[in-house]
Write a structure and sequence with these properties.
The complex is a heterodimer of chains A (308) and B (637).
Chain A (H helix, E strand, L loop, with lengths): L2 H14 L2 H24 L1 H4 L4 H6 L3 H14 L7 H40 L9 H6 L1 H28 L6 H29 L5 H13 L2 H30 L6 H32 L4 H6 L10
Chain B lengths: L14 H11 L25 E10 L4 E11 L6 E7 L11 H6 L2 E2 L2 E2 L7 E9 L9 E2 L6 E10 L4 E11 L8 E3 L5 E4 L5 E2 L2 E2 L2 E2 L15 E10 L3 E4 L2 E2 L4 E3 L2 E11 L4 E4 L3 E9 L2 E9 L7 H19 L6 E5 L11 E3 L2 E3 L8 H4 L4 H11 L19 H15 L7 E3 L2 E3 L1 H9 L17 H23 L1 H15 L6 H12 L2 H10 L7 E6 L4 E5 L7 E7 L4 E6 L5 E3 L8 E6 L15 E3 L4 H22 L4
Parallel strand pairs in B: 1-15, 22-23, 23-25
Antiparallel strand pairs in B: 1-2, 2-9, 3-8, 3-12, 4-5, 6-9, 7-8, 10-11, 11-20, 13-14, 15-19, 16-20, 17-19, 18-19, 21-22, 24-25, 26-27, 28-29, 29-32, 30-31, 30-33, 33-34
Helix pairs in contact in B: 3-5, 3-6, 5-6, 6-8, 7-8, 8-9, 9-10, 10-11
Chain lengths: 308, 637
């Protein structure tokens, strides 16, 4: 199966199942709202100090941060003004909540991932997200996610270290960035394939699903080439998408906050759909790509049945 | 120099003598008698020669030594005979890690660490009167032998000239504190402070202060003829203009340069340089611009050239025409960055890009900031030669103020240093932030009395430039530029002090100048305006600092109208919206942010009707960022 056939089959699957993108999007929206609220509250006192926030909103963020820092520096006996204290508390809590939110988001993703994978793989009349199915896959998915983060992180460190020792001179930074993005695109693809193996390949073992994904990947050079190309293409698409949409999403004029917020959320839903497309690709591979001889030998008869 | 230094009241008693002597020589108009500055870039007159040199340097790239010979000429500019000469031997500061200079610097300079295996030194082997052939002795006058006295066998009368023949060996350190060798294969050489050099003789006295770690330089004007010999593959650049074609014989290249009306010469040699030549139009006169670049900087050559060319034009327009026929810009190669960020007459050493990813690099004015700053030194102090060590504000503070003005002109929109999407920053705000860490440091503090380089930088660069911005804000752009131009015109080719600068400003701007100088230049006072209460019927503003400086207070009324009230910035002031049922909605002190030395601005404004838009906009942006991060990080695999 070539790259374009893979993507050609996956895209309609993801398009038909587009509401599943909301399952990927909603947790991040809720968590961002929770984590951002203390920051909003912390800005209240500063809002009473005239045009400072207006300057920040129109591009002078660094300047306002500097002024806040100078206010702390100038504070007699080390006690900063009330507005700075409120901002400090609000920002601090917001950042702390962000740290917690990343963990929660990871758990929620692993909670919904099984349900999403299942829905992407079933026939059209049975399509739909099932919490029961999702809950049934939670622990295997969580283990896979945990191991996947370790593997991705280790791989990224290795990539950076290898690039660092190469005599690339001024090219070191761009080469490092490209290599890192490439690794993330491939590593993520492998883990997505492992998730699809988990749900549709008939095992509840995270490690085994990762191994099977690897076996499926190397079953033939042509197959591996197609899949790698597809992952890189999707990675490139995501980079291009955020290059185009990111700056637009970052611009939030004070006079059009609602419209900007809606545009921002639309961009994030689009990003969630790109993730859905990657998952659909993994499901497509597991369900329909021909398994090679080595793969068939390693997978015992009967293992292919879903265990729910 | 790019980073930072300070000063004190200086030789004030000799001011009258100096002015009289200067007038007699027809060198400049006395302060207070300057003609109104012309906002043009006409060429200015050259100075009288006091210290001139004919120098011949042979570079040995293997031993990292320069073998020098030459003739030093001193003309007594005073009104009394001179019985001794003082000579500076700067390289001796790097003789070991235990010299006084190194102890002050803790063997590091602007992040560069001294390499004790590659020290620097200067050994004078010949010092002889040219007229009699009599050898003279150098008597080191400080522990580090950075300055030495030469007792004359007979006094030198006022206006008389003495020639000394000299030979020396300069051992160059691994690039450290602006000078030395380094870069690829250790074959890049930036050769500064490399020859025996007369100390400055000003107002009837020698400047005998030893060289210090935070200190820069102070010298008399003169004419230099320089001859540099290096292996033929080396590209050579130097202060002044090249005289004739290079000659190549026996595998050695010899280049000749001449610089008139300068206080120093430096030179560089490296086989890897690419040379970019261009011409800059300065008020109808063409100035040659030569930029020496390492290969890695060639893709950015336009930025280097444009920064130098545009700043020469701007400063020529504001403070008088660039007076020399050529400017050389040297960009040190990787591994020799310590040679960058330094000014010499008609030659500046700048720096390359920081190596950030291209999209970010393109938004950061790192190249421009360093280049413009060093070019600004071609006016202060290369033309208006103040004592950089004793009164560094007149050197570094002025250059950073000029840099702020030029960058704002070249990159408007409060983004003169950084223009990265929602994050932009004016260079003035960086200096203001730095200033606040040394806001109580008098700008008259000599550089060697400031313990650390960071504090020196914060005071002389940060507070120094912010102080000038504050004066500009008080008196207005054009009047203050005219006053600075008058100061430059009045003291060009001279050795003014802070007192002279103050006198010059007072002449044009009035007595408020003294109020400022006593509090914030010589004194330790600070400013911190605050709106302490706001009601519809009245608002109260007060000064929380121990200084006072006039400032504007903007009132915004409930009907949308706006009024500006003047406040002396000293005593608390209660402002009322006036009769007719008018009500206040907001009040802001210094709404245009003209008082750059104010310590805290957050409490400068208050409103009864906060606009929710900016707050929501910031939060939506923050939440969007969090959400994108959560989607990216929280959906692995």
């Amino acid at each position: 199966m070539n790259t374009f056939l893979l993507l050609g089959n996956s895209a309609p699957r993801a398009a038909r199942s587009w509401p599943l993108a909301l399952a990927l999007y909603v947790p991040s929206a809720i968590l961002a709202f929770i984590a951002g609220t203390p920051f909003f509250l912390g800005l209240e006192a500063l809002a009473a100090s005239g045009t400072l926030l207006a300057r920040a909103a129109t591009g002078d963020v660094v300047l306002v941060v500097l002024e806040v820092g100078l206010a702390v520096l100038a504070a007699p006996s080390g006690t900063p003004p009330a507005a700075v204290r409120a901002l400090g508390v609000g920002s601090g809590v917001s950042v702390a909540l962000l740290g917690a939110a990343v963990l929660v988001q990871g758990c929620l993703y692993n909670l919904v991932a099984g349900g999403v994978m299942h829905s992407l793989g079933v026939s059209s009349d049975a399509r739909g997200f099932s919490w029961t199915v999702a809950r049934g896959w939670f622990w295997p998915m969580l283990r896979l996610g945990f191991e996947g983060v370790l593997a991705l992180g280790t791989g990224a460190a290795v990539v950076v270290a290898v690039v660092a020792v190469l005599p690339l001179g001024a090219w070191a930074a761009p080469v490092s960035a490209v290599a890192l993005l490439g690794w993330l695109a491939l590593g993520n693809g492998w883990l997505e394939l492992a998730r699809a193996e988990l749900v549709h390949g008939g095992t509840r073992s995270a490690w085994r699903s990762i191994g099977r994904a690897g076996l499926r990947l190397v079953q033939s050079r042509a197959h591996m080439g197609s899949l790698v190309a597809a992952w890189l293409l999707l990675g490139l698409t995501a980079v291009l998408y955020w290059s185009l949409v990111g700056p637009l999403a970052a611009v939030v004029p004070a006079s059009a906050v609602l419209g900007s917020a809606l545009a921002q959320q639309a961009a994030l839903i689009g990003s969630a759909w790109l993730k859905l497309l990657r998952l659909a690709l993994a499901v497509e591979v597991v369900l329909h790509a021909p398994a090679g001889r080595r793969y068939r030998e390693r997978v015992r008869p009967g293992e292919g049945a879903a265990v729910l | 120099m790019r980073a930072v230094r300070p000063a004190a009241a200086f030789w004030r008693s000799a001011l009258a003598v100096s002015v009289a002597a200067s007038l007699a020589l027809g060198l400049h108009a006395a302060p207070g008698r300057t003609a109104p500055p012309e906002q043009s870039a006409q060429a200015v007159a050259a100075p009288a020669d006091v210290a001139s040199y004919r120098l011949s340097a042979v570079l040995d790239p293997t031993t990292k030594q320069v073998l020098g010979t030459g003739r030093m000429r001193f003309t007594n500019p005073g009104e009394r005979p001179v019985e001794e000469l003082w000579v500076r031997l700067y390289l001796n500061a790097f003789r070991s890690a235990s010299t006084p200079w190194m102890r002050e610097a803790i063997a590091q300079f602007r992040g560069a660490v001294f390499d004790p295996a590659a020290p620097g030194s200067i050994d004078v082997t010949v010092l002889r009167r040219a007229d009699t052939g009599r050898d003279l002795a150098l008597e080191p006058m400080d522990e580090g032998a950075t300055i030495a006295r030469v007792q004359l066998d007979r006094p030198l009368d006022p206006g008389a000239t003495l020639d000394l023949d000299v030979a020396w060996t300069a051992r160059l350190p691994r690039v450290f504190a602006r000078t030395g060798f380094g870069g690829p294969d250790d074959r890049f050489f930036m050769v500064g402070q490399w020859y025996p050099k007369f100390a400055a003789f000003d107002r009837g006295r020698w400047d005998t202060e030893p060289w210090h770690a935070n200190a820069e330089f102070f010298h008399d004007f003169g004419t230099y003829d320089l001859e540099v010999t290096a292996p033929a593959e080396f590209v050579i650049g130097a202060s002044g203009v090249r005289v004739g074609e290079d000659t190549v014989a026996d595998g050695q290249r010899t280049a000749r340069f001449r610089a008139e009306g300068v206080t120093d010469v430096a030179w560089t040699a490296w086989p890897g340089f690419s040379v970019v030549q261009s011409e800059v139009d300065v008020g109808g006169r063409s100035v040659q611009l030569e930029v020496l670049l390492p290969p890695a900087e060639m893709p950015r050559q336009e930025r280097h050239v444009a920064a130098a060319a545009r700043s020469v034009q701007l400063f020529s327009r504001w403070y008088g025409a660039y007076p020399w026929p050529k400017l050389t810009v040297v960009v040190p190669p990787p591994g020799a960055e310590g040679a960058g960020g330094m000014e010499y007459p008609t030659l500046v050493a700048t720096g390359g890009a920081l190596g950030l990813p291209s999209p970010v690099e393109a938004t950061l004015r790192d190249i421009e900031t360093v280049t413009v700053h060093e070019v600004a030194h071609q006016w202060f102090p290369m033309q208006v030669q103040s004592n950089e060590a004793r009164e560094a504000w007149l050197d570094e503070g002025f250059s950073d103020y000029l840099t702020i003005r030029a960058l704002r002109t070249l990159f408007p929109g409060n983004a003169s240093f950084l223009d990265l999407g929602p994050a932009r920053l004016d260079y003035a705000d960086i200096q203001r932030a730095a200033a606040m860490t040394a806001i109580r440091q008098p700008l008259t503090t000599p550089s060697w009395e400031i313990a650390t380089f960071n504090r020196y930088g914060a005071a002389m660069y940060g507070k120094g430039s912010s102080a000038l911005l504050t004066l500009e804000g008080r008196f207005g752009d054009e009047p203050f530029t005219a006053a600075m131009r008058a100061y430059a015109d009045g003291w060009r080719w001279q050795h003014p002090t802070i007192t002279d600068f103050q006198d010059s400003l007072r002449e044009r701007l009035g007595a408020d100048v003294d109020l400022f100088f006593e509090q914030f230049v010589r004194g330790t006072r600070t400013l911190d305006y605050a709106v302490t209460s706001l009601e519809p019927a009245r608002a109260t503003v007060m000064q929380r600092g121990d200084g006072a400086w006039p400032v504007a207070v903007a009132l915004e009324l409930a009907d949308g109208t706006r009024e500006i009230r003047a406040w002396d910035g000293a005593d608390a002031l209660t402002v009322e919206p006036g009769s007719g049922g008018r009500e206040l909605r907001a009040v802001a002190i210094d709404p245009e942010r003209r008082v750059a030395i104010e310590t805290e601005r957050l409490d400068n404004a208050r409103t009864l009707a906060p606009d929710a838009g900016p707050r929501l906009a910031l939060v939506v942006r923050w939440m969007g960022l969090l959400q994108a991060l959560l989607q990216a990080v929280g959906q692995v695999g």
